[in-house]
Amino acid sequence: MHVTIVDETTFVTEIAHRVLLSMDAKTSLAGSLHELPLIFETSGLPDLMIVNVTNDLTGWEVATCLQRAGYQGRLLAFVDGDPADSRIRHLTQLPNAECFALPTSPTLLEDILRKAVPGTTINRTRSPSTTTTSASEYHGIIGVSPQMRSIFARMDKVAAGDVNVCIHGESGTGKELIARAIHYASPRRDRPLITLDCTTIPEGLMESHLFGHVKGAFTGATEHREGVFSLAHTGTLFIDELGELSPPLQAKLLRVIQAREFFKVGGSKPIRTDIRLITATHTDLKTAVARGTFRDDLYYRVAVFMINVPALRERVEDIPLLINHFLRKFSATYGRPAMKIAPSSLARLSSLPWPGNVRQLENFLEQAVVLAEGDTLVERDLVIDDFSSTFGASAHPAPAGQQFEPGLPLSEVERRHVLRTLQKAHGNRTEAARLLQISVRSLQYKLKTYNRDADATPRAHRGLLPKTAAP
């Protein structure tokens, strides 16, 4: 589930973000209505909108903005005042809008969100066997391999303090889960955990998202906005894909880490910050330092404590545990009896390289649960000839010299070329971007677009599993 939150304050954002994280929902945060078109362009239309309608907003402004963007999904509007006030009557005329008086108590707001956001009922009705933490789980992270046990031990050691942590691993290995586990095992567990994904924010808005801006700082800055350093004050700030930051922003981030203070864009007053910083990257920052694309002084500040997350193919013994975990999860989600997997199917899945790591395995199993005819996954549930998803395409390179068939749309030619180049670079996005002669940020946008297109493809036409090469 994808949820976008529009909040000019920190009250709704902090609580809604915490509730949605507990439901494994993807969240996008907007500090004002003016940011929505850009967020919709980069992340797509969400399944749910949560809007804090402050005194500076009117229902007409919110309704007009959503209608122009073509959003027709569900809307939860929290109104600072009486929900029946004429100021927000335009909101009540939207087909899927629900208006609530903004509670003064965080507990009441959290209770409203848990009751209103879809998916919480399923979590509450799961059997104890699906929610009890076992010896193979650490804060929701599955693993018994020596590599994961070593990571769990390192997490235990680092959680108690405030040292900066840098998590390195391929895309889909669970870096954000590790960051979240460290936060909730730390003394700051009751304070905010704010996430910023550097690949989803356009370069021109990154500084504003980091530090906030004052009214009039730039064209379109019609109100004050808080950045993630303000939102995460006294809590934890998790910056994902840190290696994508531009050199000027690297310098400003370094100053904040050293001085523990920052300036809003257009502001002249220093603002103190008390945060625990956790970063993640799929690129090798040491190599980036050697190439001159990442500051060495910033590297030594953020990588005080390093955690290297292994790829799924490097911890094969964890695959059966992950498969059983996801089968339980998606069986409950889709109201099916607890599904099992045949031994031959389990062996086949365990032998695959899974270039998209745990995320790819999870997506594959969700689709398999939806399409399976029985209560046990067998070979016919796993093998589909037309494997058209992103990772399957990259795992299926065309033979040398093969040409694209005539009549293909240019967008499809580009998609196949990009994915084959990524496969040639062994999943290294920086190297793939160099070969394609585009920026890493542009490549990230393209890959996210391909994933959205795959999600929109009718299930009957999707492939689920890459074919293994004949011996």
Could you please describe the fold and organization of this structure?
Helices cover 44% and strands 14% of the residues. Mean pLDDT is 79; it is low at 119-133, 384-402 and 454-471. The chain has helices at 11-22, 36-43, 59-69, 89-92, 106-116, 120-125, 128-131, 146-159, 175-184, 203-211, 228-231, 247-259, 285-291, 296-302, 319-333, 343-351, 357-371, 379-382, 390-394, 410-424, 429-436, 440-456, and strands spanning 2-6, 26-30, 48-53, 74-79, 97-101, 137-138, 141-142, 165-168, 193-197, 212-213, 225-226, 236-240, 261-262, 271-272, 276-281, 305-308, 340-341, 376-377. By secondary structure, the chain is of the alpha/beta class. The chain has 3 domains: 2-125, Rossmann fold (3-Layer(aba) Sandwich), CATH 3.40.50.2300; 146-309, Rossmann fold, CATH 3.40.50; 315-461, Orthogonal Bundle (Helicase, Ruva Protein, domain 3), CATH 1.10.8.60. Helix 20 packs across helix 21. The longest helix has 17 residues, at 440-456. The chain starts with a strand and ends in a 15-residue tail after the last helix. The strands form 6 sheets. The chain has a 5-stranded parallel beta sheet with strand order 2-1-3-4-5, with helices on both faces.
